[in-house]
Design a protein that fits this description.
The structure is a single chain. The chain contains 22 helices and no strands. The two termini are about 20 Å apart. Helix 16 runs antiparallel to helix 17. The relative contact order is 0.10. The protein is an all-alpha fold. It has a domain of about 150 residues.
């Protein structure tokens, strides 16, 4: 009998790692479909997390086998810029052999100084481990139970049984996380889709920025609410769009804290490095020549789209369209947040930040992955089709389609179109006047509770007959 009281359910936390792996995965493979459903949600979630870890490790090994001059290109830029800075130069003097330069505010340099203290291999391995941890934090933020919801009887009983078994607090937390089917699914998608693959291959900082901002917006039940978002804004400006959303949604204290934290960190960096701060904010921020060709398909921003389409008044059109996108996103995000649908509000505003930013590389587009959690009003098949489209687009990544056909155009602009679709779905939900239905985490939790209740009733009836 398993730890959760279900007959035949493997205990994910018993035994060593090899026994744990074969127990969970082997049980899922050898049992019949009906018996497979009898596995506890924690065991199924643990199996998917193990798969995600395995895929991530394989990706890291493949990335590490690239010649040293080419692997983890952006991490090399961070390390080279920090070396130049600590040797008496500036962050913005360093230029990699292919022309890449440091494009972040001086605050980022203060946070990355530790890269110089580690050997190259150790820094790469630690960066990869932190990247996976940030993906886990991001998946937890989007799939955790909404704040303020009273735990149901099944959840209370599960917590009580966990306490009686004498598990440590960390293991109890792990058990509750793994019992959420949405967490393991979203973590696997974050690892496998193009934003996660690109972030790991380049050694990018994007996933840390998104994880900080998303966790602060979705899990704001702590005294430091607003500070993680402020730190994310100080490192990268695009999450700043969440500040007016929070203000319009009535969370004004958190909005002021986030804005104040970003300004305080930027001001402190200006005091410590006045010359570099003046260069960045006065020159480098608006210097488009510091970026690689921004019109390539990898840049899925609205400005890059206008450049690819050779729009004659690209600058004016970009400003006007960005104003419309920001207004629509703030309206939809604030309305949805006031209704308690923070997941969709966060996805909508995050997608809008990708659209209006001049540069939106693939590794910036983590905001689109949780779009798989959204539901579409109407028959259930619409939601299934939406999720299939989201996964398909993000697995493929932005590539230049063959020929000048409409299909080629859609393939080339796929991530931009997906971001606009997220915005449209959010507007639809906001204008509809009601919630679009429970999100995927809520649906998955309800399914797991119903499945466990049905299994408990079946076992009780079987015991009665035997008795």
């Amino acid at each position: 009998m398993g730890r959760d009281g279900s007959p035949g359910a493997p205990a994910f936390f018993s035994g060593g790692p090899p026994r744990r792996f074969f127990r969970v995965v082997g049980a899922a493979l050898v049992r019949s479909p009906r018996e497979r459903l009898r596995l506890s949600p924690r065991s199924r979630g643990g199996a998917l997390v193990l798969v995600a870890i395995g895929v991530f490790v394989v990706q890291f090994v493949l990335a590490a086998r690239v010649p040293s001059a080419e692997r983890f290109a952006d991490l090399q830029v961070y390390r080279g810029a920090v070396d130049s800075w600590l040797d008496g130069g500036t962050l913005y003097e360093y230029r990699r052999h292919n022309g890449d330069v440091f494009t972040y505010p001086p605050v980022a340099g203060h946070l990355l100084w530790w890269l110089r203290c580690l050997p190259v291999g150790a820094a790469e391995a630690l960066w990869a481990a932190l990247t996976f941890g940030a993906m886990g934090l991001l998946a937890h933020a989007f799939t955790a139970e909404p704040l303020g919801r009273t735990p149901g009887p099944d959840r209370t009983q599960a917590q009580g049984s966990t306490d009686t078994q004498g598990l440590t607090r960390a293991r109890a937390l792990s058990a509750s996380v793994l019992a959420r089917p949405g967490f393991a699914v979203l973590l696997l998608l974050l690892v496998c889709t193009s934003p996660g693959r690109s972030n790991l291959a380049f050694g990018q900082v994007s996933v840390f920025v998104v994880a900080l901002a998303a966790h602060d917006i979705l899990r704001h039940d702590h005294r430091w609410a607003g500070l993680p978002l402020g730190l994310a804004i100080a490192v990268k400006l695009t999450p700043a769009l969440f500040v007016p959303m929070l203000w319009c949604a009535g969370r004004r204290r958190q909005a002021v804290t986030a804005a104040g934290a970003a300004l305080a960190l930027t001001g402190a960096s200006w005091v410590l490095r006045p010359g570099e701060s003046a260069d960045y904010w006065g020159h480098h921020l608006a210097d488009g020549s510091r970026f690689v060709n921004g019109s390539i398909p990898g840049n899925q921003s609205l400005r890059a789209f206008l450049d690819r389409e050779h729009c004659p008044a690209a600058g004016v059109c970009w400003v006007v369209l960005c104003a419309l996108v920001v207004a629509a996103a703030l309206y939809a995000g604030s309305v949805l947040a006031r209704r308690g649908d923070l997941v969709q509000a966060t996805v909508v505003v995050g997608a809008a930040s990708l659209v209006v930013s001049p540069i939106s590389w693939t590794h910036h587009q983590f905001w689109l992955v949780p779009a798989v959690l959204l539901t579409v009003p109407g028959p259930r098949r619409r939601t299934h089709r939406w999720r299939a489209v989201v996964v398909g687009v993000l697995m493929l990544g932005p590539v230049r389609g063959p020929g000048p056909s409409a299909v080629s155009w859609i393939v080339t602009e796929s991530h931009l179109l997906l971001a606009l679709a997220c915005l449209g779905l959010g507007l639809w939900a906001a204008l509809d006047g009601r919630r679009t239905g429970p999100s995927f985490p809520a649906q998955a939790t309800r399914f797991a509770v119903a499945l466990r209740s049905a299994r408990r009733a079946t076992d009780t009836e079987a015991h009665r007959r035997v008795g």
